[in-house]
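wait is this the right file?? whatever heres the structure
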């Protein structure tokens, strides 16, 4: 082999080697850049003050302790945040029932008392009876109130501990535990709430932090007209928070409740297992 051919072979080998090494190096650098930018800590950003609208839907499925279906309820409503004075409002709240597991809901009933129901989101919406002074005392109003409480829970999990979260490190909420009153209708007791930032994903064209939460061994009691309940609940879910605006882009929650229900005039108490599936989607 002549010297020229040897040199050509060497240069060809070097070029091929570079073609192999450079893509892998670039890939490694790209992965490190992504890790440095998105997976070491959540970016420090100011919360957006723009108007945001969401659709929340909650499905309650009731069964006895043996798993037999006894009924289902669907609650839905539109939530608007970013109104003047940092207030929020609900509109188009409907409740529908069905006694057949494999049949669609029929006869949605609009909850007129929730139309343009406006308030400033805070802990007062959970603990103070006056927050719902214009609500009827019917059982259905509890489902409507749950929309308010659940949305507030998503906002707390999304924002209150944002700066304390580390990737895949479980954070134990320090200030939400013990028993507290629920707007004059009952009591709730948390044993422990866990939050964990699991990574980054895309939704609605925006990069979002995936924040998981769960709480088990919670105790719950309600006392309303003609009905008293007592039981336990566990819930868990995910909230997707934009890392640019801190807006909630979507959220899901699941819960399981077992309650002993006492109805006035009935001799025997009823044991009910309720599965709740809740979803929040951004519509504006």
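ok assuming it is, sequence goes like this
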């Amino acid at each position: 082999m002549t010297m020229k051919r040897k040199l050509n072979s060497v240069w060809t080998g070097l070029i091929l080697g570079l073609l192999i090494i450079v893509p892998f190096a670039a890939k490694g650098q790209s992965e490190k850049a992504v890790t440095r930018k998105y997976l070491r800590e959540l970016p420090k950003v100011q919360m957006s003050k723009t108007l945001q609208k969401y659709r929340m839907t909650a499905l309650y499925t009731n069964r006895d302790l043996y798993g037999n279906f006894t009924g289902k309820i669907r609650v839905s409503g539109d939530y608007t945040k970013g109104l003047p004075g940092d207030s929020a409002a609900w509109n188009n709240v409907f409740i529908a029932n069905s006694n057949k597991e494999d049949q669609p809901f029929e006869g949605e009933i609009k909850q007129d008392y929730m139309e343009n129901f406006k308030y400033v989101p805070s802990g007062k919406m959970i603990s103070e009876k006056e927050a719902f002074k214009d609500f009827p005392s019917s059982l259905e109003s509890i489902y409507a109130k749950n929309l308010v409480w659940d949305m507030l829970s998503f906002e707390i999990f999304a924002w209150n501990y944002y700066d304390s979260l580390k990737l895949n490190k479980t954070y134990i909420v320090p200030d939400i535990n013990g028993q507290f009153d629920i707007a004059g209708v009952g009591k709730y007791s948390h044993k422990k709430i866990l939050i964990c930032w699991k990574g980054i994903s895309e939704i609605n064209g925006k990069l979002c932090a995936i924040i998981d939460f769960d709480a088990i061994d919670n105790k719950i009691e309600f006392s309303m007209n003609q009905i008293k309940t007592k039981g336990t609940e566990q819930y868990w879910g995910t909230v997707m928070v934009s890392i640019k605006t801190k807006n909630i882009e979507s959220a899901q929650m699941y819960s399981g409740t077992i309650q002993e229900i006492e109805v006035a005039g009935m001799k025997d108490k009823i044991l009910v297992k309720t599965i709740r599936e809740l979803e929040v989607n951004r519509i504006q």
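Helices lie at 3-38, 124-127, 140-160. so i think its the right one actually
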